[in-house]
Amino acid sequence: MTATSSSRETILAAIRATTAATAKQAGWLDEAYQGLPRTYNRIGRLDRDASLNLLIERLREYGAGIAETTPEALPDAIAAQLASTGKRRFAAPAALPSNWLAPGFEWRVDNDLPTGEIEHCEGVLTAAAAAIADSGTIVLHHGPQEGRRLLTLLPDIHVCVLLASQVVETLPEYFRQCISPPELVTWISGPSATADIEMTRIKGVHGPRTLHVILARDN
Amino acid sequence: MTPTGQPHAELDPRFAPPFPQAALPVLRNPQLRKNVAHAIDIIQAKRGRLVDEKDDWQQLRSAASAIRSHVLENLGAYLEEFEARCIAAGGHVYWATDAEEARRIILEILRQEQASEVIKIKTMTSAEIQLNPYLESNGVRVHETDLAEIILQLGEEPPSHIVVPALHVNRSQVREIFARKMGLPELSDDPQILTAAARNYLREKFLNVPTAIGGANFLIAETGGVAVVESEGNGRMCLTLPRTLITLAGIEKVLPRFDDLEVFLQLLARSATGERMNPYTSLWTGTVKGDGPERFHVVLLDNGRSRILRRPVERQTLKCIRCAACMNACPVYRQTGGHAYGSVYPGPIGAILTPQLQQLHHAQSLPFASSLCGACYEVCPVRINIPEVLLELRSQVTNQERGQTKRFLDLLYLGLRFANFLFASSRRFHLAQRIGRIGARLVTRKDGWIHSLPSIGGKWTQTRDLRGLPDETFHEWWANRKKEAQ
Predict the structure, then answer these.
(1) Where in chain B are the domains?
(2) Which of B232, B286, B306 is nearest residue A192 as measured by Cβ atoms?
(3) How near does any CA of chain A get to the CA of B129, in Å?
(4) Which fold has domain A48-216?
(5) CB atoms A206 and B194 under 8 Å
(6) Which residue intervals of B403-473 are DSSP H helices?
(7) A178-201: per-residue pLDDT in tens?
(8) Per the CB < 8 Å rule, is A194 touching B195?
(9) pTM more than 0.95
(10) Which CATH architecture fits B9-306?
């Protein structure tokens, strides 16, 4: 589109006119950026157990279910959690460990499942990329064990398995541990909610209305 | 926006009445004032609690302020970086100098997609360019998907807040709108039931409408990524299910790096809704094979922003991350609600942003719609000195009007020139004080208060009382005190 490409030049020229006074060398921008003040807390203050307890407390506040287990007992804990939902048809990302797919349930493993099929699943079981205790946040990067975005969006129940080693205390610590910026991220802090009617918090609008977290203390 | 495609004239700065006039119907509507005050009290209390628990809140504000200022100083470089990365990730980038161009670009994309309807994530920027009525009048049906936006769209109500746009509507009013428009006469006014009604109403739209339009909370220059912050999951639906996604974003929305979100995600939800983190934040980069839309378009909107950038004092307006903390804290907004501001951006940020986007041609009263108490500055997570910008705009409006003959003969300006004459000499000033005291005796009531002043002074006493003048001035008291001591 020629119109927008000339608009591009117009806008950039207008912006440049505001900063033209300072001619900049290559690398200047980076240096200026590095010099920005960052005196806020960038590392946590709690030990591992206190961090995990804080995460559990926050998730409870959000009304999310939480079950604690060990790595050895994980498959049993998953089976128990799934059974407690009373539902049978669950979706799962393709790369979940096979012993997580508890027997006795109808599993729909996502090898390009059509949308309609995901919509008909009553729940979904996934892993997570990280969790942030301070805000009670579960982070998905939508890798092979976390599933594509649709998978954790349409089913009404999300059962999410979290390893204790994935939990950090603060948001900045999460960003420190990302080796490179992920292409896709969903930060989930409690089940979907709205307060649009008289600021009354209502749980469960469009995303999964129920979130269960299974925390495996692996260290 | 109304479904019939007509924009709400009361929120178009070109047609809206001036603030004092627009505020009157609200001030006379106790239900509306109750709804607004109720919602604001709840947000304010939650915000206060969560901000208090962060012992590094001021440091986070400083970092956010510095990052946003740095971006604005180097906006060209960061926008070009964003553009290059977004294109490399499979996105298409468009630049729009004004609202009309942005609307045309979006319509053209929709025509190429042969889209006759779109689902929408709440975006104030689209309200700024009046996108919905334009699309409707060009044969595209628009479905808002945020609960508050559905209430407004179905109820044909204008938004009154940038985060909770329907906060002026109470539950029984929502029930009435939903019952009528969704054909559910038996609906109760329980918010839980009303929310479920919206969920059912929209589910079919999410699954079947292949084109979505949304905004951006942040653009990431380093990666070409876009972040959207929301609560309900309607955003995730619109970002994931459709084949084509169009994002409309102001050019100021860019952040240098992915890591910068560690500052803004801590500030935004706490400031906006009083939550440690909003339920869902999504970030995506261009198009991703097998996950989400196949085609992704970003429209970068100037619409007056590069002009604001040029002015050293007003530039800080563009640091705004649209959290609405300033309107929640504002004693004026609390009384008037959002509609009086005659713009989709109400409250203190609207009072400085709207006149600037309009080149001061409309909305002349807005910079004066403030007591300058500074509450907005104190809560602003990116430290925009709103009172400073208000004062700057006031002086510009006044200077613009000064040359006009109409103003030359205006009583207020005559009065001010006369005051200038009196205050310029201490002799004239003391004389005026003595005469003024005699005059004041005529209007001071027995209780020692002045309840109404004549002429234009009456505008002041319409809504306030003045204490009567004391029997002697400080200077007189000081002089007498010396005499007595001798």
Answers:
(1) 9-306, 326-404, 408-485
(2) B232
(3) 17
(4) Rossmann fold (3.40.50)
(5) no
(6) 405-408, 411-423, 426-443, 457-461
(7) 999 999 999 999 877 888 888 788
(8) yes
(9) no
(10) 3-Layer(aba) Sandwich (3.40)
